[in-house]
Amino acid sequence: MRLVKTVPAVLAAATLVAAPADAGQPRPPSDPVGALLAAFDTHSIVAKSSPDPGPFVFDLVRDPRFPGRVNDIVVECGNSLLQPMLDTYIAGGDVPDISHVWRDTTQPSCGFSLFYEQLFALVRQVDTKLPAERKIRVLAGDPPIDWSRIHSAADMEPFHDRDASITSVVKTQVLRKHRKALMLFGLGHLKHDGGSAAVAQLEREYPGAAYVIADHYGFTSDNARLEQRLGSWPSLTPIKGSWLGTLDTAYFPTNREYPPGSKGFPGVDAYLYQGPVDLLLREPMSARTLLDTDYLNELRRRATAIDAPPDSLEWPETFFERERTSGVLLRG
What is the C-alpha separation between 270 and 10, in angstroms, rounded? Predict the structure, then answer.
């Protein structure tokens, strides 16, 4: 199966702020949700960095156009071993404690995430109003780990390759079934040029399957001036064909070296701007989790079992201290 990758013309028409704000030209009304959904015209996957620095994902899922264009949402904070439990919950069934799905992953920080707790509940509610053929499925992408069987660092070894798990889930549950999926993961899993990253692996078998969107978390230098060029928010700007594509790659947080003269954001197709980085809020922690002493004790047991260093985030105390000393803003 070969999917041709193009930048949708409708995406360029929807809001694509290709002209710099300082050109003095008026902007059309922004519809980043419509622009993202238009990408599904030519791609099976739209992959967006997550968790969200703003309300965009929740607005997207609530939009009445979303269920008609998207079949699945694939998430990073979800234990794929518990997919049957997640399916039951999203379908409106009685699940005593759905939090196991995001608490029992390989990533301790997922357990404190309010984003996924709210996202799952929102999709469940949206599905109550949809006919069976339009209902949205949520797919857990993290390795199928059973923490009751983890008693040593060696027991953890089979679950370190998270990209392999993500790739398997998307390939078997989305691409082979000719479905459309929104992927919500850290950007390192999503870039086209990511080597062993999930999207890069998928596109070796399904070329051009994904359209990758990076959230704006600030340019590496000259941020204030460049944010002015981004203009009003929210907006979704393609890298190719816009001024972002002519910007030196060094302005983007790429986490790797590129040859001198490289332009644009390598491995990324579009840039989502939800406001100046100085106004972005940190994701709040789940009070439900913070007050669950049994779960916190289980996290301590896991950290002990895998010989986690005392200053690592596997320990809840270390995680709490980091959060305690951080402000409510992403910067500050």
Answer: 14
Q: 3-class DSSP state for residue 16?
A: coil
Per the listing, tokens 């950007």 go with: 187
- Cβ atoms of 251 and 219 within 8 Å: the answer is yes
Q: What does the pLDDT look like over 51-103, one tens digit per residue?
A: 888 899 999 999 999 999 999 999 999 999 999 999 999 999 999 999 999 99
Contacts of 164 (CB under 8 A, 6+ apart): 143, 201
Distance between CA atoms of 117 and 126, rounded to whole angstroms?
15
Instruction: At 126, give phi and psi (nearest 5°).
Output: -60, -40
Residue pair 239/268 in contact (Cβ under 8 Å)? The answer is: yes
Contact at 8 Å (CB) between 280 and 217? yes
- What is the C-alpha separation between 265 and 270, in angstroms, rounded? 9
Q: Give the integer Cα–Cα distance in Å for 275 and 293.
A: 37
pLDDT tens across 170-211, in order?
999 999 999 999 999 999 999 999 899 999 999 999 999 999
d(CA 159, CA 216): 30
CB 165 within 8 A of CB 197: no
CA angle 183, 241, 19 (to 5 degrees): 105
Distance CA 40, CA 262 (A): 28
> Which range, of 4-13, 97-106, 204-213, averages the lowest pLDDT?
4-13
How many whole angstroms from its chain centre is CA 286? 18
Coil, strand or helix: which one is 61? helix
Q: What is the largest CA-CA distance in the chain?
A: 62
